[in-house]
Amino acid sequence: VSMKNIILQHWNGTKTFWVVKCENSIRKYADDIDADYELLSGFPMGDWFPNFNTKPWLVVQKLFMLNEKYDEYDNVLLLDMDMLYTGVIDDIFKYEGIGRLHKKGMTEANASKNGRKWPKLYNKGEPMFFGNCLKFTKHQRIDLRKHLKDDIIHKSISDDGLPPNDEIIMHHLIVKSGVLKDKKELQLPHDRFCDLPEEAAHNATLLHYCGNRKNQL
Question: In what side-by-side order are the strands of the sheet with 75-79?
Fold first, then answer.
């Protein structure tokens, strides 16, 4: 039986040249590996949880990948908008693993913005992933969703007034749910699916044009 998979991305506002280029490339990738594709826009989390319809909550909108709307799929892959398909076909859904671990951020709270700004949601040594590429199975998503409470998020505002980002919330949900505790392989082959152009494998399928790299596109 073939698996039913979907790739999600999120963008709010006017599409710049690099957004259009990347979106078109990921749509092509979904087509090449026989997956569905959806581009989320605006504030989908605000329809699910109240009070998520403002600009500071923009990055949290990616957590909509946990919504029951996608429970018809065996796997859901969330990609940042600055991910680009190179045309080298390799099906990411055939690989074990969630994404790329933020290994430095896992060493101690102060090692990354995630732990430093939102210490209440931080657990040293527990899995934390970069938010540009995340792939979860249906059962993982359902377990994570059970622990997604908007009051937890609202009670974890940083000292400088920022709501927690997608990476620290996902880390918190992984810890609370225990969903990955028996999973042997946590990382995707990230040099082929979620790394920066300068560090990725020569035959990479997806590249992450983070920061000013977008201007190179």
Answer: 36-41, 5-11, 75-79, 133-137
